[in-house]
Write a structure and sequence with these properties.
Keywords: Kinase, Transferase. By secondary structure, this protein is α/β, with parallel strands linked by helices. It is built from 16 helices and 12 strands. α7 crosses α9.
Amino acid sequence: MNVLDSKSFLTSIFNAAVAAADPEKTIRNHLPAKPKGRTIVIGAGKGSAQMAAAFEKVWDGPIDGLVVTRYGYGARCERIEIIEAAHPVPDAAGLEASRRLLEKVRGLTAEDLVVALISGGGSALLPSPAPGLTLADEIAVNEALLASGAPIAAMNTIRKHVSTIKGGRLAAAAHPARVVSLVVSDIPGDNPALVASGPTVPDTDSRADALASIAAYGMKLPASVMAHIQSPAADAPRPDDPRFGGNEVHLTASAGVSLEAAAAEAKRQGIEAVILSDAIEGEAREVGGVHAAIAREVATRNRPFAKPVLILSGGETTVTLRAKGKGGRNSEFLLAFAIGIDGVNGIDALAADTDGIDGSENNAGAFADGSTVARMRAAGVDAKAMLAGNNAWTAFSAVGDLFVPGPTGTNVNDLRAILVR
């Protein structure tokens, strides 16, 4: 298998993982019972518009609804309104979307049904500052979180304690209507209360947990935000709140299911596959170094897995910003990986975000092999300097190895696929 064939193979693995999370297939299996009253569809996340379009196709009763997704991630719907807003940093369009979502679920009765279509990315798409805070405060919080290197669970715990819509508050506003949440998980461990900061799913995290994460990762947040989190006003509703009593939560897609589909596709093409984990977290460059060590061991010593083999992993790494370069967690992971396999033959890798966007650029991730660092050097790019400057996008762009599939309509976290030939 040559390099071009390897790229095609790895792309087919990515496509299989994404297909396993296709909303039309997954939502059909989790349709709630029809209500006596109205059916209202709400949602937020990078896959919410596609989920809404899929729900329209499989639901044969009357519906009304509103979902918010990232700019460029919209889908054609006839009965559910799609609003686009900014991600990963919130904007005024997201603020208006949050206001309208809360308004959409108010005044319902116990005979009404609210279907919540939730996917990753909803945290940034649903800014709704607590009383006394502003959109600028919530933007400052988001920027501090993204630069902190904190895991997604810690970030979302903080977010839900500065919001009037996250942390189950959107579902609480819908009471006494029954709320059924259909969740596409991008969270290691698949806790639905952490996906999009759980607008319809409460959990047990407290403001003390939020304050502990702020301290642990050295975050500098506005004084107004800190004052709020330290006050009882920040407390989110608890899972035993009677307003959540009749609600349901269903996980419709996850990294684990998609990794199994990716492994099955590899085996269909004659390559054995192993899954390291669907919940790997940590600093992207450090996780990249560990994956490189495993790939080198297989390539040079045929252990712990026999060649040829596809090594798969999922989860969500983090990037602690040290500079203002272009990149994302998958491209940063892969640049560290490329440095770790420099000069080793027979290794090809793809790291990509299953939603189609890694960071703030238009790529989902990138490809790498044992010649990547040398090719970068020939193009005048110092791979280690680029890694130090959080500039992985620039490095892979210089050698034409960015992976740009476009928005996929789902989001089940990162996919790392390493082929050792």
